[in-house]
Write a structure and sequence with these properties.
By secondary structure, the chain is of the alpha/beta class. It has helices spanning 4-9, 31-50, 62-74, 84-109, 145-155, 182-190, 221-231, 263-271, 280-291, 305-309, 355-365, 393-400, and strands spanning 12-17, 54-59, 116-118, 122-125, 137-143, 159-162, 166-171, 176-179, 194-196, 203-208, 211-214, 236-241, 246-248, 256-258, 260-262, 296-301, 315-318, 388-389.
């Protein structure tokens, strides 16, 4: 049976699973459905480990958090509802448990004893992020107009009308700034442990007078994955979705798949509006952030993750030129620049790299731990124009100051 040391030798990839890996279109989200889908996804991840990659895994959680919020609303007169950040943490535990269990089973079937663990992860955001003034992410159940207006007045939440369906709560989607548990995650990865973390983009928190406080928000899980990949010094970022490649002119007669593109080319396509904000847009932006920090990234189908990381499938986003790449910052106690500019090849698995060499190279690339985000408590809602009403935004902003 392969040992943990073989997992410590390979190159590191952060894998971001799309929502289709957990819940397929048309499914209602039963336990059996989710377990079946997660088991199928973990079979692919086990193949990736078998190919020699060190895997750090993250995932979406939108349907799961939404269901918890619906359960909150329906059972509010019987049991006390939990706030949204707690629901996010609950979903991390739920999905992480199923993913860790099924992945461990598939690894054992391949005679791999690589350990797997799940870390409930907080991600700090800037309380002054403009997203707090423009909540756009719908969450939870639909309400009547009367119920929505009562909630706005009594609870101070922002609500938006979805024509023909009712009103829903909307929350901000701020940019991820700091992974609170990053030191523990790094230690686990360095020790060869497959680590499931930053689920759903992480539990959003802000720092208020030096203390962490959970907030009602949704962090994009792909942007959080890019931050995670940079912070652990990963060689590659793989964002897995339900399409085999990224397309320009999608769903038109001029549709064209992208195979290998430079960061500047991809930014130009994004500026032309080829990638929708709610779907492919954040995935492309996440890849660009990681590539511009010195890595390589691929967007591919879950079913093709192994060939994608061998350079044979998916859309690969590459640095513009080796000389234009920014070096990674040195880690704690590491000499800055050691191996930082080393060119990465997407086709290489790195399974032949010695454990000590891998550790030294990772330490050199790994950034220092970021300072905590400045500022106090942030508002959880705001004014997004005529469609969004938040009666308490001004009061919360004043309190934050």
């Amino acid at each position: 049976m392969a040992t943990r040391r073989s997992q410590k030798r390979g190159k590191t990839v952060v894998v971001a699973l799309g929502g289709n890996a957990i819940l397929q279109p048309g499914q209602v989200g039963t336990f059996e459905e989710q377990l079946f889908n997660i088991d199928a996804a973990m079979r692919r991840i086990a193949d990736l480990v078998k190919a020699g990659w060190r895997v750090v895994l993250t995932h979406g959680n939108g349907p799961q958090v939404g269901n918890l919020l619906i359960q909150n609303a329906l059972a509010a007169k019987t049991v006390a509802p939990m706030p949204m950040d707690v629901c996010g943490a609950m979903s991390q535990g739920q999905i992480g448990y199923l993913a860790a269990q099924t992945l461990t089973n598939h690894l054992r079937a391949r005679r791999l004893d690589t350990p797997v663990t799940c870390v409930v992860t907080q991600v700090a955001v800037d309380p002054r992020d403009p997203a707090f003034d423009n909540p756009t992410k719908p969450v939870g159940p639909f309400y009547s107009e009367a119920e929505a207006r009562r909630m706005m007045l009594e609870e101070g939440v922002a609500m938006r009308e979805d024509a023909g369906r009712g009103w829903r709560r909307v929350v901000p989607s701020p940019d991820p700034k700091e992974i609170v548990e990053i030191d523990s995650i790094r230690d686990l990865v360095d020790d060869g442990v497959i680590t499931i973390c930053c689920g759903g983009g992480g539990v959003p928190v802000v720092r208020s007078r030096g203390a962490l406080r959970g907030i009602a928000a949704v962090i994009d899980k792909d942007l959080a994955a890019a931050l995670l990949a940079r912070e652990v010094g990963a060689d590659a970022l793989a964002i897995l979705t339900d399409v085999p490649k990224v397309y320009v002119n999608y769903n038109t007669p001029e549709q064209r798949a992208l195979d290998r593109v430079t960061a500047s080319e991809m930014r130009a396509y994004a500026a032309e509006g080829h990638f929708k904000a709610g779907s492919m847009g954040p995935k492309v932006e996440a890849c660009l952030r990681f590539v511009e920090s010195g890595g390589q990234a691929v967007i591919a189908s879950l079913t093709e993750v192994v060939p994608a990381l061998a350079g044979e499938a998916g859309t690969h986003i590459l640095p513009d030129a080796a000389g234009a790449r920014r070096p990674r910052r040195a880690a704690r106690g590491a000499a800055a620049g050691t191996g930082a500019g080393k060119t990465k090849q997407a086709a290489a698995t790195g399974s032949d790299r010695a454990g000590d060499e891998a550790g030294a190279a990772k330490a050199a690339r790994r950034p220092k731990k970021k300072a905590p985000a400045a500022g106090g408590a942030g508002a959880e809602g705001g004014d997004a124009g005529a469609e969004v009403i938040d009666m308490a935004a001004a009061r919360r902003r004043a309190a934050a100051e």
